[in-house]
Amino acid sequence: MKLKTVKILECVLIALAVLCLALLYVKESTVIGVVGGLCPLGALVVNVLFWRCPKCGRWLGRDSKHFCTHCGTPLDRENGN
Ligand SMILES: [Zn+2]
Known about the structure:
Layout: H1 3-26, H2 30-50
Helix pairs in contact: 1-2
The structure holds zinc ion.
The site of zinc ion has 8 residues, from loops.
């Protein structure tokens, strides 16, 4: 998966979680609560599984970087390798 896609997917999942929490104030629903609880978990799983250096395969960490801190490979997110 491309690094850019990983970031977009994470943002969508976090946004969905926030939306679900907001909806819970309007309407109490178990489904909304479960989805709202699973979305941040999904974002975490996506991050751990796919937020990795394309060359060495190690996790890139929390911060946005322009190169891998482990092997120094440039991370061109626009081309998303
Ligand atoms: Zn690397």
